[in-house]
Model the fold of this input.
Amino acid sequence: MPPQDPHAPSAAAFTLLAAEHAQLRKAKRSPRIENKAVEGSAPSAQELYQALSDASTYHLSTARLAKDEPELVAAVACDVFEALVMHCSKRRKTDYVEGLFGYASREAYAMFSAAVFHKAEPHADCTVRVSDIVTYVCKDGRWSKQCAIDARGRNSELGLALHAVDFELRQQLDYSYPLKERECPKYLRKIVSDAVTRRLAEREEAKRRRITIDRSKLTGIRAAAALTQESLLTDDERSEVEVTPVEPPMSVPVVPTPVKSAPKPVTSEPSPTAPAPVAPAPAVASATPAATDGPFTSLELRFLTGMLEGTPVSQLLAPTDPFASVVVDSINEKFFDLIGDAAIEFDGDEPCIIEDYLEDVREVLPS
Done:
């Protein structure tokens, strides 16, 4: 029986075989030899990447660059594997994984060979599936052992391909810790180089497409948002955030009524240098959030706290609050002054905090 360790070479090779057959079916190509053991769903990209490292003599997943750039290394390794699968399917008589580890096997098996017992009658026909890889079958009283793939150790040819991935990535990234190049076939070097170049180009394109804020347009955006918000308010909601300004009374001529003259009370004349008393201005309700010690308003701090906690943005704003886009623009404008960049970007219609600035956001929140 094979070891049950999921990282054993046989289990890793089985994962690679499943990934190869799934890829060939997706490309509408038939495997050279059908294998019913791998007709299920395809492994995930992470499972494929781990299996590549576990089945090869080069431990790519534990290399220095893989720890610094795990997503990039995993993506390139999987790309190279898929390219090699298609290369062998079109140009070789043997599929890639079976060329590395061999075909499925079936051999006679003596059940309990070390035991001494009396066979009163032949064993009934049966099938005992031990794992995805190994199955024991009894037919007409004879046992046989079936292996979906027979990987007895790590593969050096696969190790050479993964070393080429690590080497080429370090070269194109100008990494501080380069590797010594190993001699490998020209077709393999080209497949690896193309995969690395494509992934790095996609990463640069993603950086260029990152949303940037034109701060010169923020005032116009806020004004338009305020008008939209005003038009959506009901009369009751508007009365909560507005107080009609007091207009000065109109001048109305008054007809004097003759009255009996009375002595004027004696009053002290105000000092010519003393300022005249000023009546306090009438209070006006304001919808502006309360001020805080830092540059951010209480609404913006509440908005940032909710985003860090994973609360949906639709639950962070009241009907009378500005739109989420207006709040985000205001927050980003203040982060431009603090860190020189926007801290929030839109993933579709939903804003999210840029991962690189999570700590900067936490620092502005009150403890």
About this structure: The radius of gyration is 38 Å.
